[in-house]
């Protein structure tokens, strides 16, 4: 696990060194924050720093650094490289700057910030785009924890109803009444899960693919054979899902995620000092990257090192092997989906009690992202309509149509056989596309402030190429050959870069 150990150390050093550089560029000071100046007891509420950190961390975590990291390891050890570099130089910078910019503009939501720097047309487009993304987050993050909880007790329908009701209550009540009180419990569960799995990884010390294996993954791809049939399925997976751009869409929340910029304004309204921004925004992203690294290593152990034989119950192994040898049989990565891996590893390593606590952490992550996503949708719409949110009546007037649309999306997802996978793909691309707009907004902001905008310009150009390429090669979109899509995406990135410098030249003359 040499790559894993080096990656964990790199994230810590990234926070200490690069985080300090970014903080120096932003130059936080002692000005009064929105939590102090605009306190309303509902959304603008000054809270203790540790609570704000827990809420921010759980808001951005979701199932992304867990499910995304598990699926991301199907691309091989390149996933470690993306988590580390993406987290330090793109994701944490994206989260910190968007949070600080929101704080300096009275806690403004993302569409308003985009409009201020990219113009009114971009604002209107991103208003609809962001609200739609929040609805998708709400629908996806109702369904995935319901699946996991139904494995323990009850039915999926029962858990969907319970989680959905909680979402409504959490979106309406003041932020310190529900979210501020129960998040610490969820955070303890999630951190316990991550630490427990980390300990077991070091106890097991499995032989995993390392970075220097990237160019020679054939032995790992064929580590599980059923006669002459590839039982693992990663080689076939890579033929249909090229590493660029699919890896960078699959692992989002563990590296960079546009969704985070919709959550940062929530905490920008709760911080008592600008000087706490690095700990809250940059620090929570680094923590999420560590969670993603742990789950990526767990996934590597599960699929490449034969860990599935150790943690999957014998009856499930027999069922898998019986169907795997049939003509239409599923490979290991097709059969053992991310929720199944989570359940098997947590229960197999940590026993019943530890498994329940770990599962609570995994379930808490999406739930605590779903409720704040819908809360963000309420605030974004209210800000666009200039609709005061101090009374419960006004909050309900916005929440009811928002929740009705989310419920319709959820019903479609459940009734469509491939609904969850389709919605997750659209969510993944939309999520990263939102990060592109956020990064360009931050680049324009830094340029206007005559600060080193290169720190966001490079991630902005890269993510522009990623999202354009994925849109071109995706079967749900144009499905162009990769040899056509990649050059086309490079042209788009160059044009976007040219636009920025042309705009900057005009801005400097003015």
Tell me about this structure:
- The protein is mostly helical and 510 residues long.
- It has a single domain (2-423), classed as Amino acid/polyamine transporter I, CATH 1.20.1740.
- It is built from 22 helices and 2 strands.
- It has helices at 2-26, 34-37, 49-61, 64-72, 78-103, 110-118, 120-152, 156-172, 179-204, 218-221, 234-240, 243-250, 259-268, 277-304, 308-311, 314-324, 332-335, 338-385, 392-415, 419-448, 454-473, 482-509, and strands at residues 225-226, 229-230.
- It is globular and about 70 Å long.
Largest sheet: 2 strands, antiparallel
Q: Count of DSSP E strands?
A: 2
How large a portion of the residues is in β-strands, by DSSP E?
under 5%
Number of helices: 22
The chain-level mean pLDDT equals 88
CATH architecture: Up-down Bundle
Termini gap: 54 Å
Question: Top keywords for this entry?
Answer:
510 residues, mainly alpha, Amino acid/polyamine transporter I, two-stranded antiparallel ribbon, 22 helices, globular
List the helices and strands and how they pair.
Elements: H1 2-26, H2 34-37, H3 49-61, H4 64-72, H5 78-103, H6 110-118, H7 120-152, H8 156-172, H9 179-204, H10 218-221, E1 225-226, E2 229-230, H11 234-240, H12 243-250, H13 259-268, H14 277-304, H15 308-311, H16 314-324, H17 332-335, H18 338-385, H19 392-415, H20 419-448, H21 454-473, H22 482-509
Antiparallel strand pairs: 1-2
